[in-house]
Amino acid sequence: MKSLEELYEFVREGHKDYMSQLTIECVIFGYHDRQLKVLLAKYMGLNGWGFPSGFLKKEEPLTQAVARIVKERTSLDNIFLQQFYTFGDNDDRIHSWRSMLFVPELRKEFGEDNWLVQRTVSIGYYALINFEEADIKPDIIYEEFAWFSIAELPPLLFDHNEMVEKALATMRNQLYHQPIGYNLLPEKFTLPEIQVLYETILGKELNRRNFPTKLMSLQILTKLDEKRKIGQHRSPFLYKFDKEKYEEALKNGIVLAF
Amino acid sequence: MKSLEELYEFVREGHKDYMSQLTIECVIFGYHDRQLKVLLAKYMGLNGWGFPSGFLKKEEPLTQAVARIVKERTSLDNIFLQQFYTFGDNDDRIHSWRSMLFVPELRKEFGEDNWLVQRTVSIGYYALINFEEADIKPDIIYEEFAWFSIAELPPLLFDHNEMVEKALATMRNQLYHQPIGYNLLPEKFTLPEIQVLYETILGKELNRRNFPTKLMSLQILTKLDEKRKIGQHRSPFLYKFDKEKYEEALKNGIVLAF
Fold first, then answer.
1. What are phi and psi of B150, to 5 degrees?
2. Which of B16, B91, B173, B178 is the best residue to mutate to test the A interface, defined by the most A CB atoms within 10 Å of its own CB?
3. Nearest residue to A127 via CA among A176, A76, A72
4. Fewest 10 Å CB contacts: which of B122, B147, B165, B212?
5. B144 φ, ψ to 5°?
6. Which residues of A touch B56 (CB under 8 A)?
7. Which one of B65, B121, B177 has the shortest CB-CB distance to A22?
8. Is B202 at the interface with chain A, CB within 8 A?
9. What is the ipTM score, two decimals?
10. pLDDT digits (tens, 9 = 90+) for B61-75
C-alpha cells in the first residue's frame, strides 16, 4: 500500500474483496555465498519484526494470492513458493484478535466491529531465493525490511518464531526429496560449492566423499570440461545443472540420503 | 449430528459458534494385514463418496478441532493426525460455492444468504490407523461409511481425489522421516511383516536384504529371543518396538533411505 488513503480504504472496504478469516504468511529465505538469511519486516504501529503477510481475495486461487503478495512486498516474480503449514493453534490469535487495527488512529476510526478485528488462521508459505537478486521496498504498512541471518533471529511478533522454525524444518526435509540449487549458485559451480549450499541450509557438515557420489547419482548435474583454479594445487572441475533432468526431478521427486 | 432438528439448528445458528470460511477434511487411512484402505463417507443429499469433514469453532485450537471431528465421525480417540495441505485453488470451491445447502429442503428454508453459502478453504489432515480397531457409525449427515482399497478408489466428490493423492504422497514421504508401525502391527512381529507394512504403504517392493539393515540401523527395534514358525524350514525371529526410542525418533525425526 502506497498511501495512507489507500490503507484507510482497505480497512473500510476490504471485506468486500477479501476473505477475513485467513491470512497468508511468507517466510522468504535467501541464500548467497555461504549465508542463509530470512526476510523480516517492521509493521506500521508495531514495535518488532515479523514476516510479510496478506489476505486472500474472495475469488482468487490460493497459490495465485501467495505469488501476488510476495511480488507486492518484494518485487520478486516466478519464484519457488512452497506451502509448509497452516497455523490455527496459537492462543494469541484465538483469544486476543490480531488485526491491522494495532495502529491507534485506525482503532479509533473503525472500532471493534471492523472486518479486520477477528480471529484468523494463517497459511504459511516459504520461498528460497538468492538474496542478492531481490529488490525490496518499504511502503506504508511495511516501514522497514531487513535480511537476518537465521542463526541470529530476534524474538519475532505473534507466533512468527514458531513459523520460521517450521518453515526451516520443512525446507530441510524437502532437500531429500527435491533438487535445489538452481538460481542459488552461479551457472557453473564446483562440487565443494554445491556441498556448501546444502551444508548451509541443513546447518551441518556433510561427508566429503559420500555427498558428491550421492548427488551425482541423481543425474541432474553435467560435468564440464573446465576447471576452476582456487589454489596452487587445487583446481576442481566445474559442473552445471542439466535443466531438463532437474525439472523432471522437481516434478517426480527424488530420494536422497547422505 | 443425530437428528434433523440438530441439523436445522446448526444451519440456522452455526455462524455464532463456527468459522465460516474454513473447513477441515480428514483422510483416514487404515492398514491391516497387507491392505491399505481409506475411509469414505456418503453425505446426505449428495450422490457420491467423500471424506468426513467439519468446521472450526471460533475459539477452538485447530488441532483440537481436528481431533473432535475425527472422534465425532469415527469414535476414534488419541490417534496420529498429521496436517498435510491446505486447499484453496479448486475452481469449484471458489466459484460455485459448496455448502451444506445441497440438501434441497435446506436450500428452500435458508436460501443464499445463509452462512454456509460461501467459498471455503480446506485444511487437510491425514491419519493412519488399524482399520480393524475403528468403530464407525453413520448419522444424519454421513448416511454411510465404507473402507475403500486405495488401489480401487471411485471418482470422489469435489476435489477429494486430489486430496487423497496429496495425503498419500505426504504419508509416503513421512516414512523416510518418522517411524511407523506402532498400533499397525501386532506387538511382536517378524522383519518380513514390517517390510510388508512399508511395502503396502509405499505401493512398491523393497530390497529384501537392504531393508532390514536400514531399519535396524534406526535402533527402534528390539530383537526377541523368540521365533515364529511359518513353515517347515522357516521360523524368523520376532521383534518388538522399543517404545522409548520409537517416541524419541518420532520427536526428533529420522533419515531413512532404502
1. -65, -15
2. B173
3. A76
4. B165
5. -155, 145
6. 88, 121
7. B121
8. no
9. 0.89
10. 999 999 999 998 888
